Amino acid sequence: MRTADMYIKSLGVYLPDSVSIEQAVAEGRYPAEDVEAHQLTGAAVAGEVSGPEMALSAAQDAFKRCGIPPEDIDLLLYTDSWHQGPDGWQPQYYLQRYLLGGDCLAVETRHGCNGAFSALELAASYLRADDTRTDALVVTTDNFGTPMVDRWRMGPGYVLGDAACAVVLSKESGFAQLLSVASIAVPEAEEVHRSGEAMFPPGPTVSAPLNFTERTADFNRRAIADGTGTGIWLTVHTQMLAVVDEALADAGIELGDITRVAYMNYSKDIVEQRCMAALGLPMSMSTWEFGRGVGHLAASDQLVSLDHLLTTGELGPGDHFLMIGVGPGITVSSAVVRIVTPPPWTA
């Protein structure tokens, strides 16, 4: 989807301090043999600060940085992957109560680790649909410090970190352009993240823990047994490259125009093999050095990395930032951002 008429007016981030891998190993939470294999250094841990509270803080930060009044927002998309509060309660209204007011449409979107991509695409479409709509707020947030998730062993090749990010998307102006955003589903791989578990009753209703390591291993065992082998994973890989090509084409640029790349905050081997080497790019262009210390932040990975690069001066006017994600489903997503001017908060 071409989105060159959409601008990023501001970013806001809530990123708590990290707990080191060394501490996690000493406490028996993280396997010592994985330290060298994955080369991760820590995970951001929010403690008792809830996802909605982190989202509110990030949104307040975003509005403070750009100076526009929160009540000007026409749409709020609240994006999460994990439980946000009491069952049956809608977390987006927490932000409306304490920040935005009740005039905008507010919707919770749950699209896993690729939620930021789908929310940006939906927000751009919503703003385009009516000339009177100018600004949307996309927030991503999760706190995984709950009994049904072991952040240190939940998935193969990563640890889970807590964070929130807020994006003010505008049709009018901003420090960066959202040039394109695209997603492709691999529906034949939908079983990967549920393999070995019953679909009913839902796991959380019977206090079943979330463990993607076990589910993925079960899927792989089944794939070998029925002869499909690695075919699904080759399809996922091929579609990831296809969605990057689509995002680049819609942005009107080539891969050689890209300055930095943000993939998922995974192990060095995964980031290098599945993303950077597959694109023919060096690891020095990735955000892995930053991501290895904060953990996989669910839908916040790429946006928090963007804020980090802007704040440290590693991205500047004229630079292009490529975001790539893979989420349960399986979906693969990509987006291209061009920096137009230095962000006002870095001046």
Could you list some keywords that capture this structure?
single chain; 347 residues; alpha/beta; Peroxisomal Thiolase, Chain A, domain 1; 2 domains; 9-stranded mixed sheet; two-stranded antiparallel ribbon; 10 helices; 22% strand; globular; 3-oxoacyl-[acyl-carrier-protein] synthase activity; Thiolase-like; ACP_syn_III_C; transferase; ACP_syn_III_N
Give an overview in words.
By secondary structure, the chain is α/β, with parallel strands linked by helices. The chain is built from 10 helices and 11 strands. The protein has 2 domains: 173 residues, 3-Layer(aba) Sandwich (Peroxisomal Thiolase, Chain A, domain 1); 162 residues, 3-Layer(aba) Sandwich (Peroxisomal Thiolase, Chain A, domain 1), CATH 3.40.47.10. The chain has a 9-stranded mixed β-sheet with strand order 5-4-6-7-1-8-11-10-9, sandwiched between helices. Strands 2-3 form a two-stranded antiparallel sheet. Strand 10 and strand 11 form a beta hairpin. It is globular and about 55 Å long.
